[in-house]
Amino acid sequence: RNSKLINVIDNNGISALHLAAYYGNAACIKTLLDKMPDQAIVRDNNGNTSLHHAAREGKEACIRALLDGNPELLNIIDNEGKTARQLAEEKGLLEIVKIIDYFAKS
Fold first, then answer.
1. Using an 8 Å Cβ cutoff, are 58 and 49 in contact?
2. Of 17, 18, 37, 76, which has the fewest Cβ atoms less than 10 A away?
3. Rounded CA gap, 87 and 6, in Å?
């Protein structure tokens, strides 16, 4: 298998990890982070990390997979100055906010 493909980023700055978070594939997130843990903090052209994508889409398992071992994601802001928690809160995704808050207290 060609492991170089996990490094591919499209013209919008979207990586495989961003896509896995957006589409809710927590198992894929775990695999990608096992192979390349530094990918957790990669941002797309809008400043979004994979956590921003997962929070905006309400992907609970993905948020847990991303934050397990990557607490630095909690404070990263996008190009509009918003954290993943703020995006979830704006969409009324209260369960997502609770999960993020849990990790913030850990």
1. no
2. 37
3. 26
Q: In Å, how far are 20, 33, 64, 88 from 7, measured between CA atoms?
A: 13, 12, 22, 27
Residue with tokens 């492991």, as numbered in its chain: 3
Amino acid at 38: D
Give CA separation, 101 vs 26, 55, 95, in Å: 19, 12, 10
Which H or E run includes 14?
none
pLDDT tens digits along 42-93: 999 999 999 999 999 999 999 999 999 899 999 999 999 999 999 999 999 9
What is the Cα 20 distance to its own chain's centre?
9
